[in-house]
Amino acid sequence: MSWDLFEEIKRIRRDIDRVFSEFMAKPPFKVPVTGFREPLVDVWESNGEVIVEMELPGLKKNDIDLNVTETTLEVKAEVKREVKTEEKGYSLRERRYKGFYRRIQLPVKVDPSKAKASFENGVLEVRLQKAEVPKRFKVSIE
Prior knowledge:
Blueprint: H1 5-25, E1 41-46, E2 49-55, E3 64-68, E4 72-87, E5 90-105, E6 116-120, E7 123-129
Antiparallel strand pairs: 1-2, 2-7, 3-4, 4-5, 6-7
């Protein structure tokens, strides 16, 4: 049994190619959008559904735009507020802008028509039912 340097180099090259191919085959988990912050997100699977929790502090549910496909969840939230205070001797006007964006690649296919979302205390929770797995059929050969 002998060790071959060239065979070892070929093996390492195959391993690197495999890792790189697997990395490039999956779309990125997040897509940055200029001017928006990325909210913190937790994603997990539980009993036939995918659950996504996202922190969106300081927003109201009307500020949030939520889109779901079979493989992705996209959340965009914008809020523009203006506060004007006028008292004797001075006038104060403050403008505030917040923007959040996150596109998440889901771990499994889901049924977008059955998505449910709730928003409470700055936390968005989205529940997505997993898509039914196609059943296997036996095909007879003619």
